[in-house]
Design goal:
This protein folds into two domains: 300 residues, 3-Layer(aba) Sandwich (Rossmann fold), CATH 3.40.50.970; 30 residues, no CATH class. Helix content is 43%, strand content 9%. The protein has twelve helices and seven strands. It is globular. The structure holds thiamine diphosphate (TPP) and magnesium ion (MG). Its cofactor is thiamine diphosphate. It comes from Deinococcus maricopensis (strain DSM 21211 / LMG 22137 / NRRL B-23946 / LB-34). Keywords: Oxidoreductase, Pyruvate, Thiamine pyrophosphate. InterPro entries: Alpha-ketoacid_DH_E1_comp (IPR050771), DH_E1 (IPR001017), PdhA/BkdA (IPR017596), THDP-binding (IPR029061).
Length: 352
């Protein structure tokens, strides 16, 4: 048993393709917009894994199967809002507007991918677990103090929600009424540790109760429900009604990263069950049944997505290989004496 059963969840389009909350169904153009976004980020995920095999991409944490959870949340934002993604959330960053070429460069460890475009308020993918949560509160409070209606949306995993900074941030955000939307993607695993092993809590959204803020639990493979919950939370934050925690219940059907082998710590029966709840397939089937989508739409979208991706890779291919010492160049505006010494040592080693 895992903690992420689909009981007690907000759903609109369930895993059987039934609309269970017709009152929450958006219009046709929103539905196709959500589908297009999921297909686009799925393509990136699939191609990133292939490029890694070809030696043209660094270590990459796939998010395939979690597209609804990522696009459905990020699409509730505008570029005036902050996005604080983790290494798992490439799909969210792309849906928010991070250019594909910057994203490819980032996962190639090229310095071109380290600096995020100035017109977007997206922070670099967080690798240290949970550190982004207090930062999001800081971004949100800064916006509120400047009198804007902008919000900060931060992502975390089930594993990250066991870290102290997760709890500190939720408390801080509640106390300061920060315009923050906390996305907790419960994908059942923290590398090889199942959720049930690291917590006795079975409903992670309830953690919000401890901090006096609303907690919402949503089917993370139903983009309609996710988008609805995220849009509501963003609207609340913009109205100065404070933070929300949204648990998107999903599953990591992929390995932790492309260098992980899940067969060493799990059997794949449950993975097959979750693959049958695929968010992209679910919405496609619904759109086709409603005659909102057909093969011609799919082919046109596919060509558009492939073209965008290939152009981005061609651009990223023009970025020069970084020198080993460049890793220290962008840490501080003014390097510390220690960093300068380390740089000199590294340069001596490289030149030797
Ligand atoms: C502070 C910190 N501790 C440990 C790690 C090592 N680590 C990398 S990923 C990971 C698991 C995180 O699991 P979860 O939060 O569920 O995110 P997921 O990978 O499932 O998206 C751990 C422990 C880290 N990156 N940072
Ligand atoms: Mg996880």
């Amino acid at each position: 048993m895992t903690t992420n059963s689909t009981a007690d969840l907000l759903q609109v389009l369930n895993e059987h393709g039934e609309v269970v909350r017709p009152d929450l169904l958006p219009d046709a153009s929103t539905l196709t917009m959500l589908y297009r976004a999921m297909r686009r980020i799925r393509h990136f995920d699939e191609r990133a894994v292939v490029l890694h095999r070809q030696g043209r991409m660094g270590v990459f944490p796939p998010y395939g199967g979690m597209e609804a959870s990522q696009a459905g949340t990020a699409l509730a934002l505008t570029p005036e809002d902050w996005l604080l993604p983790t290494y798992r959330d490439t799909g969210a960053a792309l849906a928010y507007g991070l250019p594909v070429s910057t994203t490819v460069a980032y996962w190639r460890t090229s310095p071109h991918g380290w600096a995020m475009p100035e017109h977007l308020k997206v922070l670099p993918f967080y690798i240290p677990i949970a550190t982004q949560y207090p930062h999001a509160v800081g971004c949100a409070v800064a916006e509120a103090r400047q009198g804007t209606q902008n919000v900060a949306m931060a992502y975390i995993g089930d594993g990250g929600s066991s870290e102290g900074q997760f709890h500190e941030a939720l408390n801080f955000a509640g106390a300061l009424n920060a315009p923050c939307v906390f996305i907790l993607q419960n994908n059942g695993w923290a590398i090889s540790v199942p959720t049930r092993t690291q917590t006795r809590a079975t409903n992670l959204s309830k953690r919000a109760d401890g901090y006096g803020i609303p907690g919402v639990r949503v089917d993370g493979n139903d983009i309609i429900a996710v988008y609805h919950a995220a849009s509501e939370a963003v609207a609340r934050a913009r109205r100065s009604e404070g933070p929300t925690l949204i648990e998107t219940v999903t599953y990591r059907v992929k390995p932790h990263t492309v260098s992980d082998d899940p067969s060493r710590y799990r059997t794949e029966d449950l993975t097959r069950e979750w693959e049958a709840k695929d968010p992209v397939v679910r919405l496609a089937a619904y759109l086709r049944a409603q005659k909102l989508w057909d093969d011609a739409h799919e082919d046109a979208l596919q060509s558009e997505i492939v073209e965008e991706f290939e152009a981005a890779v061609r651009e990223a291919d023009t970025y020069p290989e970084p020198s080993p010492t460049e890793i220290l160049d962008h840490v501080f505006a003014e390097p510390t004496p220690q960093l300068r010494a380390q740089g000199e040592e590294l340069r001596r080693e490289v030149n030797a």
